[in-house]
Amino acid sequence: MSAKPIEVAEKVLSIVRQAQEVLATVENPAIRMDPAWEEVIHTIDRAERAGQALVEYGNIRPERLEG
Q: Cα separations (Å) of 50 from 7, 14, 22, 25, 34?
């Protein structure tokens, strides 16, 4: 059984929100200057775009995902 676009979008965007919250708590400048940090940020950004694309693909209004 395959997941519906809304289910995948909800999961992706939920994980992205959690990751963004955790990343916002990192205050150590040495970590933020590490090249791996930039890769993490780019990966989270790509995941967010993928979630939004699923929302658009499924013709789902983002308001339904908030809550």
A: 13, 12, 20, 24, 25
Q: How many CA atoms lie within 13 A of 65 on its CB side?
A: 23
| Model confidence, pTM | 0.71
Token reading at 14? 């939920």
Q: What residues contact residue 55 under an 8 Å CB cut-off, 6+ apart? A: 5, 9, 13, 61, 62, 65
3-state secondary structure of 42: helix
Q: How far apart are CA 9 and CA 53, in angstroms?
A: 8
Taking only the tens place, the pLDDT of each residue in 3-12 is 777 788 889 8
